[in-house]
Write a structure and sequence with these properties.
Layout (H helix, E strand, L loop, with lengths): L1 H15 L2 H4 L3 E7 L14 E2 L5 E5 L2 E6 L9 E7 L11 E5 L5 E5 L3 E3 L2 E3 L2 E6 L9 E7 L8 E4 L4 E2 L5 E8 L6 E6 L9 E7 L7 E2 L8 E2 L5 E5 L1 E2 L6 E7 L5 E8 L15 E2 L5 E5 L15 E6 L9 E7 L14 E2 L5 E4 L7 E2 L1 E5 L2 E7 L6 E8 L6 E2 L6 E2 L5 E7 L3 E2 L2 E2 L2 E6 L7 E4 L3 E3 L3 E7 L5 E5 L10 E2 L4 E3 L3 E9 L2 E2 L3 E7 L5 E3 L3 E3 L3 E6 L6 E5 L10 E2 L4 E3 L3 E8 L9 E7 L1
Parallel strand pairs: 40-47, 49-55
Antiparallel strand pairs: 1-38, 2-3, 3-4, 4-5, 6-7, 7-10, 8-9, 10-11, 12-14, 13-14, 14-15, 15-16, 17-20, 18-19, 19-21, 21-22, 23-24, 24-25, 25-26, 27-28, 28-31, 29-30, 31-32, 33-35, 34-35, 35-38, 36-37, 39-41, 41-44, 42-43, 42-45, 45-46, 45-47, 48-50, 50-53, 51-52, 51-54, 54-55
Length: 595
Amino acid sequence: MMRSRWAVFLIAAFLLMGAARLATAQEQVIYSFLSESSGYNPNGPMAMDSHGNLYGTLAGGIFELSPPSEPGGKWTEQVLIDAASQPGVHVPERGLLFDAKGNLYGVSTNEGQVEGEYITGYIAEVSPPSTPGGTWTSQVLYLFPSNASTDCEAPQSYLTIDSKGNLYGTCINGGANGIGGVYELSPPSEPGGKWTEQLLHSYAQDGVDGNLPDSKAGLTFDAHGNLFGTTTAGGTYGDGVVYELSPGAGGEWTETIVYTFNHNTGGPNTPYAAVIFDRKGNLYTTTYNGGISPTGGGGGGGAVIELSPPANQGSEWTMTQLYTFSGKSDGSSPTAAVLFDAAGDLWGTTFHGGPYYVNTKANTDGVLFELIPQSGSGGWKEVVHHFFGAPGDVLAVTWPMIMDRKGNLYGSGSGGSNNCGNGFCGGVFEYTPAASALELSFSPAAGTYDKAQPVTILASAGGADIYYTTDGTAPTASSTLYKGPIDVTENTTIEAIAIDGAETSAVAEAAYVIETAAPTITPDGGTFTKAQTVTLKDAAAGAAIYYTTNGSTPTDTSTKYSKPFPVSKNTTVKAIAVAPDHGASGMVSATFTIN
């Protein structure tokens, strides 16, 4: 009977929160982990490679999920590292990230004796096989000691990486004050060398600094190379802070408190999550507690907030509550970071809230939500897209989701369809947003052309705004606004989206190859009574010319033209021109007959 009443509630809730947007949307558990023996309980944010494969950590293993090869097919799992079948292997247990070479990095919080010393955790690198079908390997890069005053102990957050391959994270013990800090782990300068660790900052219990970062509070770089993080405790009111670490001369980093949370005023407090930035430098995160309800009463179920940088350096940032959760059907207690979609909407999950119950009526299973900025009022509107916790569904989604280039969302949680003892093994879910009726077209169509092309982009809705990129990044509402034909003068791939109110199109793509203008041959062939001096000239500035005299087709590995050359017997000269960022030109030829 209880389920029947909830079914009625669900129908009403969907109508109130915009059922039209959800009509074709879909959440599905794409993989449920099988048992304790084959890996279970995904832990930490997942990583995605360029082929759409997902990578994550399990209790004692690392998994890869590969998308189906055909529509409607099943995702397939491969356990890359398995501690149970590979004795002595080191398995990171908290999140994974890729470097530029395809290696994965993660953190382990395991404590114990290693080579006679007591350690409080480690960082491991997991490398793909060097040959197809080979075995992935894992190695420890750094062991965190115990009782250290100049080093971190007990690594806490998942890792962040910079463009040089340095890894960054937080810890909850060690440091100058014994309550942890922020560290950097740098790769060796020579092959075979050791990674080096540096303590960038020690948290302090001084009534100003924060402490006790959560495991889900990874660090985030801004556009200027500064690191930002959150803590669940510390600060003036004991409710946590957002802090900034800025690099300086000699490798020194300076901390600035960006914002101090205060529960005394009913404001948002206790941030568990990492921060993200928009292109204007505003910062966004979630808080587990506090906040004023959007209806003016109740509230306290956590919030999504925006922090705007101050006009004067050194001042606190300005906090705006974008949305405060009531703790009911709209969700409560978010622990994971939010993320932007192409239209500039924010997506996230909550740990509690929603209609489904687990174990006791006081523990709910969370929701998947979207916050949409409202251009008129300047506020944000929440749309709940999914209630977690139905039979076979995941629940307790505490780690941040990731989004692919099509706007599909992926995350992991406990629950799923397979039992592990008294609980569940956990699973990975995919959420596919409702398809948009907006479509984009390009004129001329993608293809190969022998000269520059003015490319026009048209949207099926005449009033839609179009945003595009040409640098390989996914287009968003912060990308270049289309105002007229784009001059394509070299090989270019244009990616674009259209936004019409609350509707955003799928990403459209068109690749253009602009061939180099063909070279000229002087003289252009004929019958002669004496040897000829042949000159080749490129029609495109900066192009290189390659030619043959043996009848073969020239390529960019043929003889490169540098100066006029003699032809003293019957010969056919063939040539092409190749310019940077262009396709090769068409081939030209000239036949010389020497009598």
